[in-house]
Design brief:
The structure is a homodimer. By secondary structure, chain A is an alpha+beta fold. In chain A, strands 1, 2, 3, 4, 5, 6, 7, 8 and 9 form a nine-stranded mixed β-sheet that branches. A six-stranded mixed β-sheet of chain A has the order 13-12-11-14-10-15. In chain A, strand 4, helix 2 and strand 5 form a beta-alpha-beta unit. Chains A and B meet through helix 2, helix 8, helix 9, strand 13 and helix 11 of A and helix 2, helix 8, helix 9, strand 13 and helix 11 of B.
Chain lengths: ~425, ~425
């Protein structure tokens, strides 16, 4: 019952179509709108930003999630976040959903919405409607359509992010197995510090699963994946993860804890982790992916706090950019994580796939091999391993370096 | 009973001397050690970093503070932080205090220590001792000696920071008043996010005051001053504020709450605030001081969290550097501060001493005057005012913009 990586993203699962178009919302001459459509009604699960200032589409999706009714479509635009837009923003959500519902012959309450971009401006409703018409009439179940959708939702992202897996589950009725598919796309590069960033992630699956089980497994999967990445410490107003399950795989529906729910949960976490790491590595201006693995913490929650503190430190990020092994900064970031530990007991390493350097042990920064450290810092991915020697709590967090380009991109984002 | 700004820093108060020298700890051809000496035994108060990884001199000073015994001297070096140095670091502290004690004819337990610089390396004891000898033999009560000391403790600081005030208190015995002096110096530019950075601050006063009252007023003064600034969100291993009171002013000793303690507390807060704002404005690479004032929060603590969230946001900092009034980012930072509020109720302004722009009201980012906003962002100081419309909680936080130079300085700090 192993999980296999397959091609594609949101159209990898049976029963899902996607489309994208250049609607001119803000960007010129590049696709900036996408649609996902399910041939059958979907149960869905979601997690949203914890920011008090929630974008209008976040409020819209949250209300649909609370209602519990099935959904059929997701409409997403890049360029304008529809956040801090008050009642106008909510009205534009309603109008967008109504527009899509008319075109697709479904109910407005079956249309989820997502936006990413500048906070403050209103969406241009005329361009949005024209975009929705074009999306509705160009849906396709091809893998290419899914890939094009993952490109259309990008803002400062430099690469699109999609991933899909397949695994086998018992067939409905009990004879033999069927293959279930789970795929997704995400975007996110700046304002990334998900607590549940402007991170948008959409997953689709043909798995038959109850709404309650899907939400439980989604909420769990987020903890060690999307919630463990940071680019700049800014938790966006628009963070959204939605998982749509159409049920066309024909598996025995998953409604209780068991082998099937465990396997689906594992697949969900694999897709979320892949998309999350891709976002961290593609952080605005980033030249390195930074992974921090904490072992031996007293609790898992403390391991998470320690790992996030290191990848979130401006000084650690700048040091990785500068390839300067100023390793005391790792110690400093562990120390202000809000977790108690014995500085004399812990051990800290820096490594990549070929080299490992221990730079702190028994309360001292060691006289480590600077050449080896430079070799590690010269690669595209750096891993710090912190063994707290307290217990069995483990966690991994991902971030990126702080570069001149981050400052450039964000000093002049609106233009 | 007003507070008057006077010239000088740590030698502004009667009974205090200072010295500085070029000891070659790490920097070449610039002063990097300083000493403060009190002619009479001082009660003292202190607050230290909350980082779990505490530098050796922080542990040394904390032990002296706990002992309650009076002190006579402070020895400070820049270049090496003596942090993450284990037992060796503590031994070097003991040896430094013993060296200074011999030279000054006092007890080692009357010598406070402070270090700032790179985390990890050991202090070179030979250079340190040679420096202490030179400091001990060149003490002076001149204002210039205090200013030179404030320069010697700088690391990446671009300007020295000192400030002093005077005020009148009832004379001891009850007839007439005497003038009391309070002055101080500080350093700090990066790794600044005091929770009680490598921020070092030393204040001296000739006020007669009990140790308990001095500690109570110092702990209170820190809350709205040093603890309300941030440069990079990294809380250092070495943060130290020490206030030494020698008592030579001849005032009626302050031992209980009253007008005199209130006036001294106000003076203490004024000096701390001035030094704190100077540190925020001189943040590594900074081109703007950013002040955020929160009004109308439900509690003071919530006002503090909101104000600190705005000045700490990488995206707000980059926007100020880029002079791009992408004001939705202020809303976003308020929203993830961890404080609940109604986004539809609040009002947010940007201002300097001449212009004010309201850019958010009734749940909307407004169509504000971009030219006026650019004028504000073109000045050296920008203030954001956030009226939460909930209660009477107020707080102000200070930070600086995120610039190419911050990345440059911290990508290559050790060399």
């Amino acid at each position: 019952m192993s999980i296999r990586i397959i091609e594609g993203g949101v159209t990898a699962a049976r029963g899902f179509q996607a489309a994208s178009c250049d609607a001119g919302i803000k960007y010129r001459s590049r696709p900036d709108m996408a649609m996902i459509f399910s041939d059958s009604p979907c149960v869905f699960a979601g997690t949203f930003t914890s920011n008090v200032v929630k974008a209008a589409p976040v409020l819209w999706d949250r209300d649909l999630l609370r209602s519990g009714a099935p959904v059929r479509a997701v409409v997403i635009n890049a360029g304008i976040a529809n956040a801090a837009t008050g009642e106008t923003g909510l009205r534009l959500c309603r109008e967008s959903a109504e527009c899509a519902a008319r075109d697709l012959g479904i109910d407005p309450s079956a249309v989820l919405l997502g936006s990413t971009g500048v906070i403050g401006p209103n969406l241009p409703m005329d361009r949005l409607s024209a975009g929705i018409h074009r999306l509705s009439s160009s849906l396709s179940s091809s893998l290419e359509a899914g890939t094009a959708a993952s490109r259309a939702i990008m803002t400062t992202d430099t690469v699109n992010k999609e991933f899909a897996v397949a695994f086998d589950l018992p067939a409905a009725g009990g004879s033999g197995t069927v293959t279930v598919h789970l795929g997704g796309m995400s975007k996110g590069s700046g304002m990334i510090h998900p607590n549940m960033s402007t991170m948008l992630a959409y997953l689709t699956t043909d798995c038959a699963i109850s709404r309650e089980m899907l939400q439980r497994l989604t909420s769990a999967a987020v903890q060690d994946t999307f919630n463990m990445i940071t680019v700049d410490g800014d938790t966006s107003t628009n963070d959204t993860l939605l998982v749509l399950a159409g049920g066309e795989a024909g598996n025995e529906p998953i409604t209780v804890e068991g082998e099937a729910s465990a396997l689906f949960g594992e697949a969900l976490e694999a897709v979320c982790r892949h998309l999350a790491i891709r976002m961290a590595g593609d952080g605005e201006g980033a030249s390195h992916l930074i992974e921090t693995r904490v072992l031996g913490a007293d609790t898992k929650e403390h391991a998470r706090l320690l790992a996030k503190s290191v990848v979130g430190s401006s000084l650690v990020k700048a040091m990785v950019f500068g390839r300067d092994a100023n390793c005391g900064r790792i110690l400093c970031a562990l120390g202000y994580a809000g977790v108690d530990f014995d500085p004399a007991a812990i051990e800290v390493f820096m490594e990549d796939s070929r080299n490992q350097v221990c730079f702190y042990r028994e309360g001292h920064v060691l006289d480590f091999d600077e050449e080896k450290a430079l070799a590690i810092l010269s690669g595209p991915e750096v891993r710090f391993v912190c063994d707290m020697k307290m217990g069995s709590g483990e966690a991994t967090a991902w971030g990126c370096d702080l570069t001149y380009d981050y400052v450039k991109i964000n000093g002049d984002y609106r233009t």
